[in-house]
């Protein structure tokens, strides 16, 4: 008798959790590697509550699976730039494998990006991709996620040398 009530409670709780989280881009910067990939992306306020990403991503050299992609994730619970390392991250993998994985598992990330490489396309040719009014897709976030300022450092290595880095800072808040 209590099993169906428990299921309804779980369903309502999971709906409340997914609706209650709001995520916005805070900042995006590229400290190195513009000769390989140039992230000319700007964070801008879209309306009173939403922030979007706009600009271009230019691949300036042919890229293949020999470029190893890595990520680090940090959390500042108070949002005061005092970051602690988080165990969340993407596994180290070749760049083409990463593109295929993201395309398969997180299609919402790539939804509004024009001229993004097709699934299975390797090597990735020289191109310019266009990002227009891209909001952060909260659906990709894991369900038990802490509110605060999240900093993600994405880097790519070629022959054990870091060739480019991208730093994304995202503010996650409860909308209770």
TrEMBL record:
Biological source species: Anopheles coluzzii
Signal peptide segment: 1-20
Domain of life (superkingdom): Eukaryota
Keyword terms, alphabetized: Signal
Protein name: MD-2-related lipid-recognition domain-containing protein
Source lineage: Eukaryota, Metazoa, Ecdysozoa, Arthropoda, Hexapoda
